[in-house]
Structure formats: structure tokens, C-alpha cells
């Protein structure tokens, strides 16, 4: 099986930028593409022809006439290519298969990676990827690749201690191993970055619109999109909002700092406060076996979503800490849009959104200039997996966003 690779630099970057304009526009004419890109009509016609010949875009009817011939409209040929997205998690592996536009055409959920050797999990992933593609009758030559989302620092930057649950996965070359097993291109990024990219691709957000995506699972991460590309930083580790110190006298964090957001407001911190209340612990049937707080947090979240006052108070306390961290990010980056995504927000995302909106409305430095839209992510629990599929689509089909920086390489995962 051959590995699909991006097509190359220079004119290919221009072609990919035009493809991205078609993606974000939904339907668009050649005249509109020329106006948006600044290219001549002749150049647009030439590049559009190559995209049609490659089967990536199609003509789909005609627009309104402005006095002459009615312009033909272009849109993505969604069934031309597919991508697989995988979210690595202790509790479960979440797979999605998306078409060229990022719409989900298939899903698969299997047991997580907790306690399993990386080599064994990779072998299982290869089998499960083949299973879901076979069930959808999608041939490998129409799959651009596999995107993998996982938590923690990028070890290309020399990071150690990717997460409190990393174990053997810290130094394991996920992408290389999976590529060897499947014959498909594999690219990897952290779950917050993938969630942001998924919003960009699936939501048809134009490259001119910057935004951030706050992702909550066991901890917090922030994905930042600017100019149609993920912002990565000097070691590809932008977005470690979970380790923003909010209280210099707060509890010690495993990262070495004190009073980090993660120690004050992550799901396990909420569970720890709940367990102090013996009556609440009994009422909700809370347990925390082996340090795993996932199930206990889900019970608290469901209770809070149902209006149970003690659970609501716990979530609101955490949400205030999250809002404080978000305020700092908004003030530094002058953001006007934020998405909340990930399993931590699944049941009680609106409580967090409400607290964040309130804090930004009262305290954002630019509140008199512009507001900040805070929205819950549509993909919900699948946000990271959908974003991982978008990562593969963008890496192969719109290489202009990777110009000037190294291609994504394998890294560790939670």
C-alpha cells in the first residue's frame, strides 16, 4: 500500500489556497474566487481546471447573472476523498471517518488505552481502521490519511511528563508505528489543536477569521487558529492553558508550578472537592478507584445538569477559575470567538459558557470595542476525532498552511 503525500510547493500552494476558499465559501463562482484571492481570471480558470480534473471540486449549477452569461458555481466534491480521525483516550478510542468537507460518514468506539502496551494498541487500531473503512465500502486509495489526537506536550520540543497518565506512551512513535501498520499517512497533534482545526474545517470558517478552542477532558488545552493555520510556538506546544498559574499560593501541580488551572478546576479537582462532602459522596455514589476520576466526574456533571445544588456549586466554582484563565488569554490575544469542546463539557458546557461570557462581558479589556462569542462545539464528544480527520485533510489537500514549517511528525500521546 502506498502512502499518500502532499503534492508539493510553489504553484501547489496557490492551488491549495483556492481549494480552501472553495471549502470556506460553500459554493462560489470563478469571479468571486478571483476577487477573494487577488488572482487574475485567467489564473483562477487554470487552477480551477486542475482541481476539477483531480476530482476535488465540481460545478454545481449557476449563479445569478449580472447582465452577461450566468456564472457557474463551484463546491467541494465531498465524496472525492475521505479521512480517518482517531482520539486516543484512557477510557475509549473514538474513530470517525469524514468526507472532504469534514462531514462524518462513519463512527466507531472501542476500549481505551489505559493499562495497554502501545504496540498492542497500535495493532488493534490498524485492525479497527480497516474494519470501519470496510463497513463503509471506502477503498484505501480514496483515504488521504489518518489523524491522531492525544493529550500532552509534543515530545519534539523535548517535553517530559506529557500528562499524569502518559506512562509508556510518552516516547512511543505513534504515527510511525501506525503508518507502518496501515500504509496510510498518519499525522498527530494534541486534542485541543485538533478540536480547533475541526471547527475551522467543518464550520467552513474562512482563513481570515481567528479563534480559539478550549478543550476539556482529564485536563485543559487551548487550540489557536490564526490565518487558517494552527499556531504552534517554538516547540509546537502552544495552548497549555491548564498550566496557567491562577494562584501563586495554590496547590502544587505535577508540572512543577503552583496553583495551575488544572489543579483548581480539572475534573479530578472537582471530584476531590466532592469527596470531602460525605453526604454528596453517598447521594451520588461517588468512588475514585486507582486515581481514575472520570466516572465520578460524569456523575457530578449529570447531577449539575439536573440542577442538584451542591453539584451546581462545584461546577460553578470550577467554571469561575476557567473563566479567569480565558480572560487572560482573550486580553493577550484580542480574540473575539471561543469554542468549548471535549467530553468535559458534554453535560454541563452551558454552565461554563455562561460563566465565561459573564466574565468577559464585565472584564475583557476590549469589551467596549468588540464582544467575544463563546459557543459550545457542535461535534461534542467527537470534537477531537473530527478535528484529527480535518488535520489529515488539511495536511494533504491544503499544504499552503504548512509552508515554511516542518511537516507534522509523530509524537507521544496520553
TrEMBL record:
Gene3D superfamilies: 3.30.420.40, Winged helix-like DNA-binding domain superfamily/Winged helix DNA-binding domain (1.10.10.10). InterPro entries: ATPase_NBD, ROK, ROK_cs, Tscrpt_reg_HTH_Crp-type_CS, WH-like_DNA-bd_sf, WH_DNA-bd_sf. GO terms for molecular function: DNA-binding transcription factor activity. Pfam families: HTH_24 (PF13412), ROK (PF00480). It comes from the Bacteria. Belongs to the ROK (NagC/XylR) family. This is ROK family transcriptional regulator. The lineage of its organism: Bacteria, Bacillati, Actinomycetota, Actinomycetes, Micrococcales.
